[in-house]
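Thread: CbiX/SirB N-terminal domain-containing protein, structure

OP (GT): Posting the sequence first so everyone is looking at the same thing. Length is 126 residues per the record. Can we get the structure tokens written out before standup tomorrow? I want them in the notebook alongside the other entries.
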Amino acid sequence: MKKQALILFAHGARAASWAEPFLRLQKLTQESEPELRVELAFLELMQPQLPEVVKKLVDLSYESVTIAPIFLGQGGHLLRDLPLMVEEIRQQYPALQIQQVAAAGEDAGVLQAIRDYCLRAVAVNP
């Protein structure tokens, strides 16, 4: 069976506390799928960054990674920066299978969860 990993890819920020929801998401995801390795990588300002995470996975003999951007939309970072990074990684590790999916916010289920959260906020403060 192929060793597969999921990389949750977030932007990064200067404040360390900004990473907390992403760390919780990583933990929740890992607990849901114990046989799947779940890593967290950042675009900038925080560590680890995507190339480091991929190197670690390759060193651990992972053969396939899926990169899931935890962004609300497909902005410049996902349209320009991430594809360039992925292409560099593909050149560096040609045997590694890499799949990049759309931003989390492009998923209908994610948008519905955010909608539900917003509507609950209104219900709490009528």
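GT: Both are above now. Quick notes for whoever picks this up: The mean pLDDT is 94. Strands lie at 4-10, 37-42, 64-69, 97-100.
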